[in-house]
Amino acid sequence: MSTESTDPVEPPAVVTPAEEPETDESPKKNSWLKFAIVGVLAIVLVGGGVWALTSLNTTGVGDCVSASPKDVDKPDGDWNISSEGCDSTSATHRVASVLNNAEDPCPAEGIYEPVKDGSKTMCLMPNLAEGNCYTSGDDGAFKKEACTTESPVKIVKKVDGLPEEGTVCPEGSSELRFSEPASVYCMGVHEGS
Prior knowledge:
- This protein is an alpha+beta fold.
- The protein contains 1 helix and 10 strands; from the N terminus they run H-E-E-E-E-E-E-E-E-E-E.
- A hairpin with a 2-residue loop joins strand 4 and strand 5.
- It is elongated, with a radius of gyration of 35 Å.
- Mean pLDDT is 76; it is low at 46-57.
């Protein structure tokens, strides 16, 4: 008797690679399309970055800045300006107004510094706060400092609005008045330690 099996044996399946369908797109057309997409994305990203820098980082009325002339001997020239939080010791000025025309004057009453920032002209006032002490720097800006017996100036009171002169500040202090925003700062000498 034979031990051979009578079951038919199937040969192993042969796998042939599938043929890629022919297309009209040549490698040149694909690289041009990739170049166009990269170019459009670059334009969108650069345009968005420029918009963000000019729109989101604009300095407006009420904002605080660190500002000083690039050349102390030429305060009418270019200035170094950077946005700061109003509580920061480096925030030397506050934007009082933005002028529509560079030839327009800053408000009449107060210590304002007309400063050109790009295409706009801002009127900056000192960034002062009640209870803080200040010295005057070489560039004329008030600089916040710790209050000591040596402190030359302390803002003892701030009043919103422009009441009649001589009616709001304590005796022994002097008034520093601003017409925009309407406010009076009472400047005295720090008497504590």
